[in-house]
Amino acid sequence: MEIERISLQKHGDHRGMLIALEENRNVPFDIRRVYYLFATKNDVHRGQHAHRHLNQMAVALRGSLTMLLDDGNGPVEVVLDDPTQGLLIGSMVWRELYNFSDDCVLMVLADQLYDPADYITDYAAFLREVRGMLYLEDMTACAGG
Q1: pLDDT tens-digit readout, 69-110
Q2: Around Cβ 104, how many Cβ atoms within 10 Å?
Q3: Is 49 a catalytic residue?
């Protein structure tokens, strides 16, 4: 699955802490969009989609949440609760966000501008599309290409 935790180098002293996010350094892509979620109720589920091309890095700046991630080979749950950790999420990964703490602030960096055509919002359609891609990749590998 195209997900990876990235440790973010913190700098600080008695005055407080600072983390710098820099494209193509600790964020492994050009940053084209930044957004954040906050004031999300604990019983709310967000996300519930995949992106065909978009890559993202998510950072829980405050509080915590759980992400269910699936690349078509089965889901994995990941808890984000540390502002010194980024979670890199590649394209064609289904994501659901839930179990938000009352104080959760989730920041997401993306390598593309918002494009509604890049979203897959139906899980069954996502599975058909991603499994078709995996099948084609297997066929190409078998053919020596």
Answers
A1: 999 998 999 999 999 999 999 999 999 999 999 999 999 999
A2: 21
A3: yes
Q: What residue type is 75 in one-letter code?
A: P
CA-to-CA distance for 138 and 145, rounded, in angstroms? 10
The tokens of 2 are what? Answer: 């195209």
This model's pTM is above 0.85: yes
User: pLDDT tens digits, residue range 52-75?
Assistant: 999 999 999 999 999 999 999 989
Output Rg (C-alpha) for the chain, integer angstroms: 17
Q: Which residue in 116, 115, 109, 94 sits closest to 49, CA to CA?
A: 94
- Residue tagged active-site, from 11, 14, 49, 51: 49
Rounded CA gap, 134 and 54, in Å? 18
